[in-house]
Amino acid sequence: MSRASGRWPGRRPAGVALALWACLLGPSQAQVAEGTSASEDPMDVQSEAPPESDWRLSGSTEAWGYTTHTDLASASLLNPGNRLAGLPREANAWDLRVNARAEQGPLALVGAVRLLSQSRRTDRVAAPAQHDSDDGQQWGQAFARYRAGEGVWTVGRELLSWGPANFRSPSNPFYFDAGRTNPLAATPGVDLLRYSGPLAPGWRGGGGYVFSTSQISPATDQGHSAWLKLDQQGPAHLLSLVLSQQRGGALFVGGFAQWTPDDAWLLYAEFGSTRQRGRLQALGAGPGPLFRWQQPAPRSADTLLGASYTLESGHVLTGEWLHSTAGYSQAGQAAYWAQAQRASGLLAQNPALADASLGQALGQAPRLLGRDYAWVGLQSNPQQTGFYWRLEYSSQWADRSGQVLLYAEKSLGTRLSAFAVLGHSVGGVQTEFGSLVRDRLTLGLKWFVL
Questions:
Q1: What's the mean per-residue pLDDT of the chain?
Q2: In angstroms, how far is CA 33 from the centroid of its own chain?
């Protein structure tokens, strides 16, 4: 049983893949085991493969249909009247997720494609409701992996996540938020070439080159990055050191450690240090811009401590604490909200300056507004597939805001389940979690086609 199971368990019914799936470069959906890196995929550590003359095909197909209702913060300073963010009040989606794998001897072709059709209704103050829709597809993963002795080569688009943390992943330069607390997430991979192999008993090294991260961060592509990862694993612990250097960017230094003292406990920590591309600064009172984009930002560090305990029932209780020097201090947050309030008050007199300032406050704020966060999660036994639930709470310590999230999924048969996601924000409009959304409810069905 997974100790710090911070992942949303997805049902993966086995099925015979269509012949076309051999060309899809099917999935590993590399749902890496808790606290392990992508370089610790079972294929990475298998030294020899039996001779194969035929391709082995496997995969799964899931069809999701869901509707979401969002209750926006009516007096939002950052998004007055929903004029800037344009958040949909109602949204409906048909979501097809196809995973496939083809293997022959030391070679594996893996891929995952997502077909998404959405329709939305967006309400704005003093404007008619806007209805729009779009259809799209996304190759979440599409890579080839080749075992050469005890070494493994991978090329293509792969989910390059590691570390045991749930709320955020400071040890990863590409996936600070890997979507582990979002039950609807289908986190895509990055385009890369990598190699991993053993260095000595208990030691493993890996590294490669990331060409693009546009699938996960189109506005801030962290491609053209070389990275190295060193792992030391013992009977009850795993230590990892990560170095990454983007062309023209700052050096990233990170790592994680996890220790399993017994069958019930998992203790872990993650850290990461780098220099962000810029930092939004609130300016003083006076005419002109309300915010300034500082480049480059000073070097910052993120540190996370966590613990997970598995009860006799199989339920898992997890707690995490995160400190980030990239966020604002309490005084910095007060200055940020003061300028947001000032910009909101300028909408009637100087709408151009107001919109530009609020757009900066929305789009260029730190990835976490504050510096200290707590995250607590309780989930039912992941091995019991008939009914699964998860309750979690995220909180910023300085402004006392937070978010409650409840997920529940009930099996309705061998191939059908119903699910619900309820989110509720705690805090006023001048807090991080309460600034845009009050409540969000999603109801849906999953059909496990194959």
A1: 88
A2: 16
